[in-house]
Amino acid sequence: MQTSATPTHCPYCALQCGMNLTPVPGGTVEVSERADFPVNRGALCGKGRTAPAVLSNRVRLTTPLVREGGTLVPAGWDEALDRISEGLRRTRTEHGPDGVGVFGGGGLTNEKAYALGKFARVVLGTSQIDYNGRFCMSSAAAAGTKAFGLDRGLPFPLEDIPRTGCVILVGSNLAETMPPALRFFSELKENGGTLIVVDPRRTRTAEQADLHLAPRPGTDLALALGLLHLVVAEGHVDEAYVQERTDGWEEARAAAMAHWPEQVERITGVSVPQLREAVRLFCAPEEAMVLTARGPEQQSKGTDTVGAWINLCLATGRAGRPRSGYGCLTGQGNGQGGREHGQKADQLPGYRKLDDPAARRHVAEVWGVDPDALPGPGRSAYELLDALGTDIRALLLMGSNPVVSAPRAAHVEGRIRSLDLLVVCDIVLSETAALADVVLPVTQWAEETGTTTSLEGRVLLRRQAITAPEGVRSDLEVLHELADRLGVEKGFPTDPEEVFEELRRASAGGPADYSGITYRRLAEENGVFWPCPQDSPDEEPAGSVHPGTPRLFLDRFATADGRARFAPVSHRAIAEEPDEEYPVLLTTGRVVAQYQSGAQTRRVEELNAAAPGPFVELHPRLAARLGAAEGDPVAVVSRRGRAVAPARITTAIRPDTVFMPFHWPGEGRANTLTNPALDPTSKMPEFKACAVRLEAVRT
Ligand code: SF4
Which residue positions does the secretion signal occupy (predicted)? Predict the structure, then answer.
C-alpha cells in the first residue's frame, strides 16, 4: 500500500479545493491540508474534509446488481454487462438508435464526459444525450456565449476578486456552497472594496455584504434593468468603451430606460434608495465585477436575466478589462469541463457545436468515423427525462440522481419507472439506482485519475491515491466493455491519460482548446487555464509551451468581430406567479453540509448530524398565519405535488417566500414541487421560483 500523501482535489464542488490524501488501513484515506493550491490554500469545508467516509462506507456498492423478479440481486460483471448490451441492442433494433438515451453528470471527469459523449454518438448512434449540468449553469453559459462569444464560468482567476473595487454577487450563497471562497470577498473588503449581495434570503453570504438587496424570487431581471436605468440616468455609462468594444447598446439602453426605478421597486420589492445605493457602490470604483450563480440562472428566463447583468458590466466598461468583468460561479465539481467535451445534447468536444459541419468533420476524423454518421443535436435534460418510457425506451445513466435533483421529480420518477431498461453506474444505491434494472459499482475520486476543470476554467489533475475495492470498475472500463460487446472494439481506452490525449486532439482549434495541456504539465503546475492551444506540435510528447489563459477578453471578445453584444432584454414574469390558490413563492437551494442530491453526503455521519433532513424556511408572519411553530411539520403544495418538512422560522426570508433545500428524497423532496418550465434558449428549468400554498399538518 502506498503510504505517501497524494496531492489531489476535492470530489465535490467546482472550487475543486486542493487536498492531500494519505492511504490508511480500511480502504480509505486521510485528508490533510494542501497549502500550495492558491484557490483554497489548505482550507476545506466539512464536505471536503469528510469525503473519505464515502470510500469505505458500509453502503458502498462493490458488486453489480441485476433485477430479478422485481428485486435487485448481486450478479457477476459479465452477466450484468451482457444483460445491458443485449437490452441496448434490442432497444436499438425495435426503436432505432434514439430509443436509447444517455444521461451524464457535471461531476464526471473530463475523460468520462468525453468518453460518454463519444459512446452515445459512435457506439449507440443516439442523439438523446444530455446531463445534469443543464440544471446548473446553462443559462449563464448561453448568456455568456451570446455576449462574449465564449462561455468560461469565470474569465479571470478568483484571486482577482480582492483586487477589484466592488462585486455584485447575484443569487449565490457561497458561504454555504463553497465556504473557502468567502475569503476572496473578505479580502476584497479588507482592501477597501465593497460587496453587494442579491438574494431573497439574508443568507450567511448576505450577512457579509455592505448592501443586501432582497428581491422577490424571479425578479432579478427587472432589478438589473432598474440598475442599468440609474446607471444611464446618473451618467455612469462608459461611452468610449461602449463605442469601441460593444454592439447593441441602443436597444439595451432603450429597454433599460423603460424600467423606471419606482416600477422596478414595485416588481422586485427593492426600494429606490437601495437601487441608488447599489449603483453608487458599483460605479464609484474604477473596477467592478458581477458574479451570478443559480439564483438568476435557474429561471425560465435565466438567459435573459444573466444577459441583463452582463449589460450592466458592458455599459459601465467592466468586462474584458483587468480586475473587472462578469463571471458565473459554476456549481458542480466538473460543471465547467462537463459542459465542454460532448455530453451536452448539442455539443462536441472542445465546446464545438454539433450542428457545425466543420466541427463534425474535425471530431469525426479524430474518432475515425464518417461525419455524416454522427447524429444531430438531441433533447435537453428535462425534455429527455420527460420522454423516458415514450420514444426513449432505455437509459444509461452516469453520475446523476434525477429522482432527487430533477424538477417535477415525482413525474420524472414515474417516467424513469416506465423504461424498459435502466442502467445506472454509481458508487452507492442512489434513489435513481434503486429503480434500475442493472446497477454497476464504479470507482470514485480517490480511486481513479482524471482531470476536472474548475469554475475558474483551470484544468486540474485529480490523482489516484488508493486502489478501488475488489469488484468495482471505472466508468471508462464500463464504456470499454459495453462498446466491445456492441461491436466497437477500438476507441474506448480504459487509461484516463490515453483518453485525455485523444480529448486534446478532439478539442484542438475549438473554443475550449486543451491541446497544449498534458498530464505531465498538470502534475507539475497548479492547473492550466484553457484555452491552451498546442503552440508547437514538435514538442510532443512534452506538451506545449503555451502558458494557458487565466484572463480572457482583455484584447478582444471571442465573437467573430471581437466586440461584445448587449442583450436586448425586458422584464417578464416567472412562468407561474402566485394566485389565490397558490399564494406563496417557493425558492430552493442548498445547505453547507450536503451536496446536490445528497447521494454521497447523506451517507456521511458528520454531515448528516449537521444537516439531517429537509426543512421549510418561512417568515414569522407566514408561520403565524399558518399557526405553525418552530419544528412543526408544514406541507408545501404546488401544482405538481406535495412535500412535508419541519418549519424553520426566521426573519431572514421575505414574508412572501418560503425556502426549501433540495438534497433529500421522500416526503420532504423539494423537487416534487418545482416547475419544469424551461428557458427557451438554455432549456434551464425554473427551480428558483414557483407558486405554492402552505398547509398545517396535524400530527
Ligand atoms: Fe470541496 Fe467545494 Fe468544500 Fe472545497 S468548498 S472542500 S471543493 S465541497
Answer: none
CA distance 256 to 538: 52
Q: Which residues are CB-neighbours of 691 under 8 A, at least 6 positions away?
A: 576, 577, 578, 579, 582, 583, 584, 585, 586, 638, 639
pTM, to two decimals: 0.96
Cα–Cα distance measured from residue 163 to residue 288, given in angstroms and rounded to the nearest whole number:
9
Residue nearest to atom 2 of ligand 1 (CA): 13
**Measured over all CA atoms, what is the biggest interatomic distance in the chain, rounded to whole angstroms?**
74
Q: Give the span between the Cα atoms of 335 and 153, in whole angstroms.
A: 9
* pLDDT attached to residue 539: 53
Q: Do domains 6-55 and 584-696 have the same CATH topology?
A: no
Can you tell me the distance from the alpha carbon of 679 to that of 298, in angstroms, rounded to the nearest whole number? Answer: 9
Ligand 1, pocket residues at CB < 6 Å: 10, 12-13, 15-17, 40, 44-45, 47-48, 178-180
* Distances in whole angstroms, Cα of residue 558 to Cα of each of 11, 437, 508, 564: 31, 45, 16, 8
Ligand 1: nearest atom to the Cα of 11: 1
Q: For residues 174 and 15, give the distance between their C-alpha atoms in angstroms, rounded to a whole number.
A: 10
Dihedral sign from CA coordinates of 627, 631, 635, 636: positive
Q: How many CA atoms lie within 13 A of 94 on its CB side?
A: 12
Determine the topology of domain 584-696 in CATH. Barwin-like endoglucanases (2.40.40)
Q: Find the distance separating the first CA and the last CA of the chain, reported in whole Å.
A: 54
CA torsion sign, 416 to 61 to 594 to 693? positive
Helix crossing, 220-233 with 261-268: angle to 10°?
160
**6-16 confidence digits (pLDDT tens):** 999 999 999 99
User: Residue 52 C-alpha to ligand 1 middle, in angstroms?
Assistant: 13
Q: From CA 692, how far away is CA 587, in angstroms rounded?
A: 10
Report d(CA 330, CA 297) in Å as an integer. 11
pLDDT of residue 302: 97
Average pLDDT, the chain: 96
- The preferred substitution site among 16, 19, 44 for testing ligand 1, maximizing ligand atoms within 8 Å of CB, is 44
Domain residue extents for the chain: 6-55, 65-135+334-529, 154-328, 584-696
Task: Name the closest-CA residue to atom 5, ligand 1.
Answer: 178
Distances from the Cα of 387 to the Cαs of 99, 105, 417, 418, in angstroms? 10, 18, 12, 10
**Amino acid (1-letter code) at residue 154:** L
pLDDT band at 4 (very low <50, low <70, confident <90, very high): confident
What number does CATH give the domain 154-328?
Answer: 3.40.228.10
| Distance between CA atoms of residues 366 and 354, nearest Å | 15
DSSP string, 452-512: EE-TTSEEEEE---SPPPTT-B-HHHHHHHHHHHTT--SS--S-HHHHHHHHHHHHTTSSS
Look up the CATH architecture of domain 65-135+334-529.
3-Layer(aba) Sandwich (3.40)
Domain 6-55's class? mainly beta
Work out which ligand 1 atom sits closest to the CA atom of 180: 5
